[in-house]
Amino acid sequence: MGFFDIYSVVFLVIAVAIFWKLRSVLGTRSGSEKPPVDRFLPPAPPTGDNVVPLARGFAGPASPPAMPGSAEPDAVPSSALDEALRLIAQADRGFDQTHFIGGAKVAYEMIVTAFAGGDRKTLKPLLGKSVYDNFAGAIDERERLGHIVETKFVGIDRAEIVEARLKGGLAEVAVRFVSQLITATLDRDSVVVDGDATRVIDVVDIWTFARDVASSDPNWRLVSTDNG
Q1: How far apart are CA 147 and CA 67, in angstroms?
Q2: Residue 82 and residue 57 in contact, taking contact as beta carbons nearer than 8 Å
Q3: Do the Cβ atoms of 143 and 159 come closer than 8 Å?
Q4: Torsions phi, psi for 106 (to 5 deg)
Q5: Which residues is 177 bridged to in the sheet?
Q6: Of 107, 148, 157, 228, which residue is most buried, by most CB within 10 angstroms?
Q7: Please, what are the domains in the chain?
Q8: Residue of 15, 222, 227, 26 lying closest to 111 (CA atoms)
Q9: Which one-letter DSSP state was computed for residue 34?
Q10: Neighbour-count burial for 25-54, b at 16+ CB within 10 Å, e otherwise
Q11: How far apart are CA 159 and CA 99, in angstroms?
Q12: Can you tell me the distance from the alpha carbon of 162 to that of 40, in angstroms, rounded to the nearest whole number?
């Protein structure tokens, strides 16, 4: 009985530490089988002076090169992206690009891993409703077929803010991730039906995180995914 209690406490502490790390970076004001794709909808035309449309922030060589594993400079000075991020920072004084990128990387790994493992409990607080429904539906179908996904997260080579928008108090920030995974889908007989359990693949995703800057809830949630 003592053995059970000790390890129960250990696992509880680990779970709390992971949640606190994500909240303290992505969700604070101090600031294969890939997941199903919920394509970006084109941004609505501006309807007021305080609307900044999702805007590309760089065009090829104009952006300074990044050191491997480092956060990107995120915005070319005086670009539309730079202006959008400035307005978000004005609306949310705790917004910090460096901290946001760090938290987004933690969220990316958690979400990819949880989706592969069919962990709906971990996914739900990290995703907007439509994205969660999409992910949960894919997990349901996978379970119906008796498929399992084996995924090893190798790492994130690059993460950079590529689009941003502030409209009606809702801030949206899109991050382009370049990551490496080993992933394979197996059927009931453990036969690989998709992916490769021995090969590292490069994955490029653009994920959009959103938050109501007037809300007391500091958490950003994934509201859209797209292929890079």
Answers
A1: 39
A2: yes
A3: no
A4: -65, -45
A5: 159, 205
A6: 107
A7: 2-41+48-227 (3.10.450.240)
A8: 222
A9: P
A10: bbbbeebbbbbbebeeeeeeeeeeeebbbb
A11: 12
A12: 13
3-state secondary structure 40-56: CCCCCCCCCCCCECCCC
Q: pLDDT (tens digit, 9 = 90+) per residue, 30-56?
A: 334 444 443 333 333 333 333 333 333
The model's pLDDT over 137-167, given as tens digits with 9 standing for 90+, comes to 999 999 999 999 999 999 999 999 999 999 9
Tokens of 157: 């080579």
Question: What are the C-alpha distances in Å from 111 to residues 63, 221, 228?
Answer: 29, 11, 17
In whole angstroms, how far apart are CA 47 and each of 17, 88, 133, 190?
43, 17, 30, 54
At 45 the pLDDT is: 36
Alpha carbon separation from 148 to 4, 117, 119, 143 (Å, rounded): 29, 8, 12, 7
Distance of CA 28 to the CA centre of its chain: 16
pTM: predicted TM-score of the whole model, two decimal places: 0.68
Decide: 74 and 164 in contact? Cβ < 8 Å.
no
**Tokens read off for 188:** 């009931």
